[in-house]
Amino acid sequence: MKYDTTIYLGMASPTADGQSIDVEVVIDGELIKKDSINNNPYKFNMIKRKLGIGFRKVEIISIKANVYSKETLLIFPNQFILMEFLPACEMNKEIIYPPRFHIANGFNPFYYE
Question: How far from chain centre, in Å, is Cα 66?
């Protein structure tokens, strides 16, 4: 049995004003979205998909940002999937965080914070 699952895809970084990147989202080997996303802290792209209960392999690729991220998520009914792009960030001279996608899931409702 498959259930409606909402996938939120976006970028909400104060250091990436006006930035846009390409993305390709693949779940269990099926291409879900191939488009670009813009930096917007108030609205993420919403994708509705029917997914079954169980482990799902989620992959997201961006050629412009040179990023490939993947996670295996355990999906239940009434859950969402969040994919948020985090651009490169230098907190101090010794620690540099590379650009990456944060991939997570949780129970509805989803809130922007």
Answer: 15
Specify if 10 maps to a domain: yes
The number of domains in the chain is 1
Return the biggest CA–CA distance within the chain.
Answer: 51
Helix (H, G, I), strand (E, B) or coil at 14: coil
Q: In what order do the strands lie in the sheet with 2-11?
A: 45-52, 2-11, 79-86, 100-107
Q: What is the pLDDT of residues 45-61, one digit of tens each?
A: 999 999 999 999 999 99
- For the chain, strand residue ranges (E) read 2-11, 20-27, 30-38, 45-52, 54-62, 67-75, 79-86, 89-90, 96-97, 100-107
| Residue 30 belongs to domain with CATH number | 2.60.40
| pTM beyond 0.70, yes or no | yes
CB-based contacts of 109: which residues, under 8 Å, 6+ apart? none
